Amino acid sequence: MSEIKEIWKPLSVYEIQGILSPIPIQWWIAGGWALDLYIDRMTREHDDIDVVILRSEHLLLQKYLYAKWEGYKAFKGKLTPWNKNEKLEIHFDNLWFKKKGESTWAFQVMIIDSENDYWIYKRNGTIRKKLSDIEMTTSAEVPYLRPEIQLLYKGGSSVIREKDKLDLENVLPALDNVSREWLRDSLTIQYPNGHPWIERK
Which of 177, 200, 178, 186 is nearest to 153 (CA)? Predict the structure, then answer.
């Protein structure tokens, strides 16, 4: 086990697409890149690139990546090698990947839970959406998380970073009323005593 060293040389969205599209799993671009794909412009520099997959498919992902990529489990500031055919325990939901023989990180995979074709929000299991409703797709067929879901992950974190606030400022004006209402309602469920983003117009 080692401390996380954030030396990144992230792949591009389209490099990710080239690696993951041949794999028979569901995947989505997440994080700040998902929001930039939604508004169709790059709003800031991105230090890394995040992908989301279903927990039920993590071993299939490893099967296809194992020949060329090393995966590590990130948990509480530590990195542990993800061994071949190792089924992840429920508390592991963050994987870092680098090419074998290289020292820089290339992409990050976040694992989401699902039940009966519904995505489940890990911080409050009562917040759910049909898996078919969490996705948007670019004109180049790149799947990404819907912006209101990505903003919920950012706003629902115990620490809201400056880049999360910037993402909200850039994306909120582009959201339709239904998406804004869903984000507001979900934050209210998670934070019944209030949250600074709930009253945003």
Answer: 186
**Alpha carbon 8 to its chain's center:** 17
Cβ neighbours around 171 below 10 Å, total: 23
> What's this model's pTM, rounded to 2 decimal places?
0.94
Q: How many Å apart are CA 143 and CA 139, to the nearest integer?
A: 10
Per-residue confidence in pLDDT tens, the chain, 201 aa: 555 567 999 999 999 999 999 999 999 999 999 999 999 999 999 999 999 999 999 999 999 999 999 999 999 999 999 999 999 999 999 999 999 999 999 999 999 999 999 999 999 999 999 999 999 999 999 999 999 999 999 999 999 999 999 999 999 999 999 999 999 999 999 999 999 999 886
Contact in structure between 57 and 26 (CB atoms under 8 Å): yes
Burial class (CB in 10 A: 0-12, 13-18, 19+), 39: middle
What's the CA gap between 201 and 139, in Å, rounded?
29
